[in-house]
Amino acid sequence: MPITRAATTTTARRAVVRLGAVALTGALLAACGGTSADTSSDGAGGKVTITVDLFGSFGYKEAGLYSEYEKLHPGVTIKQTDTEDEADYWKSLQTRLAGGGGLADVQGIEVGRIASVTQQQAERFEDLRKYGADSLKEQFAPAKWAAATGKSGEVLGLGTDVGPEAMCYRTDLFKQAGLPTDREELAKKWATWDGYLALGKQYKAKATGKSAWLDSVGSLYSIMIGQEKERYYDASGKLIWENNPALRTAWDHAVQAAQGGLSAKLDQWSPQWNQAFAAGSFATIPCPAWMLGYIKGQAGESGKGKWDVAALPGGAGNWGGSYLAVPKAAKNKKEAYELVKWLTAPEQQTKLFEKQGNFPSATGAIAKVSGAKDPFFSDAPIGQIFGEAAEAAPVQVLGVHDQNIAQQITNALSEVERKGTSPEKAWSNAKKGVANTIG
Questions:
Q1: First vs last Cα of the chain: how many Å apart?
Q2: pLDDT at 282
Q3: Is the Cα dihedral 304, 219, 87, 346 positive or negative?
Q4: Alpha helices in 226-372 (DSSP H)
Q5: Where are the beta strands (DSSP E) in 385-424?
Q6: pLDDT above 90 covers what percent of the chain?
Q7: So which residues are the signal peptide here (predicted)?
Q8: DSSP H/E element including 432
Q9: Which residues, 6 or more positions from 5, have their beta carbon under 8 angstroms from its beta carbon?
Q10: What is the DSSP letter of 378?
């Protein structure tokens, strides 16, 4: 998903990766909730409008899934709204949840926020077991299912995608700088993050124009911390981020990149960042699976064949992924659940990966996409690369304030990157920011 997914916001998303159509069988139609008569109980005259509110775009509209669902369910209309920045979305959602008004039938929840829902806000969301969601447990990866389970076993959301990580890079810019372009050779050269930064120094010394090695040190930090099981909290729920050596390692590498002038100093999700994909302002970008569609949308058709994907330095990790939840204040709860169930089913998750690049969290879909290649990314075997990353990625400990802490740290790194603030001062600012944010 849905980057920043700031840990995962997405906007322009994902052009088509053609693997072939997935047939809709009679069994799938039955699983989708049947006829319009039993999916429009709240709608007058057999008609109902299901509202969906997301951050960025989860790719459902772009992949044609809404229109497909509407055809399968005459009388159902789906209306989506979305906010580009996840932090803005979450703030607005909290206000509406507190007031009980203005909520959509379906609300997106970023993985970095799901612990807040399960631990602090369970009473504000529907327990989807009442609609039969408990029967879907085996459909999802265990960690994905468990993260949206409340203290008393409530099912508070169904998983959309996950964010296995890789490295996307511009082969044309690598050639201009005299660097190798073969994805397997590069994976060996940057097997470690030190190797990645060393290659970045070579690039900086030889690159033409104003192209930097990577887009921002914030993205470097985010991808590295995504390789860790414990980041901001330990398994007991204790805050550990200040003294977590893995976090400091990610911080130190991001600082090295900033002080070494390897970054294009771009705010992720900003207009300038969006334009940089087509302009060639950076040669590499750490990319979870959902980032592929974003790159396509921003680079445009002229970028086809200039990009490639290689395995990530330092091992497998996960950055992002989301859930779909139904608020207690939703107008059309049953209809909302039926839509959520259909959108997160293996068949639809497979289609979404084929067309948009969102890597599935449904176990039945993961095997189906293993052979996928993407012509935009030089026919990179994305099914294999991201599939292996998803299999090897750690099951991350999720805390209530994961997203808030991550945002304060990336803000502090931006100070080092943009203003030349000392790492010590920036770290102190991050500590103050976290204290002010989470109390």
A1: 29
A2: 98
A3: positive
A4: 245-259, 271-279, 291-299, 333-343, 346-356, 363-366
A5: none
A6: 80
A7: 1-30
A8: helix 423-438
A9: 56, 86, 110, 163, 288, 290, 319, 320, 322
A10: T
CB atoms within 10 A of CB 322: 31
Contacts of 135 (CB under 8 A, 6+ apart): none
pLDDT above 70: residue 27: no
Nearest of 418, 167, 416 to residue 283 by alpha carbon: 167
DSSP conformational letter for 22:
P
Q: Which of 195, 182, 174, 398 is nearest to 314 (CA)?
A: 195
Residues 6+ apart with CB under 8 A from 112: 6, 7, 8, 398, 402, 403, 406
Q: Sign of the CA dihedral 168, 172, 176, 182? A: positive
Gyration radius of the chain's alpha carbons:
21
pLDDT digits (tens, 9 = 90+) for 231-277: 999 999 999 999 999 999 999 999 999 999 999 999 988 899 999 99
Q: Max alpha carbon distance in the chain (Å)?
A: 68
Q: pLDDT by residue (tens digit) across 171-203?
A: 999 999 999 999 999 999 999 999 999 999 999
Residue 158, SS3?
A: strand
Structure tokens at 7: 């840990």
The Cα 74–Cα 92 span in angstroms is 32
The contacts found for 346-350 with CB under 8 angstroms, 24 or more apart, are 346/139, 347/22, 347/24, 347/28, 348/65, 349/160, 349/161, 350/22
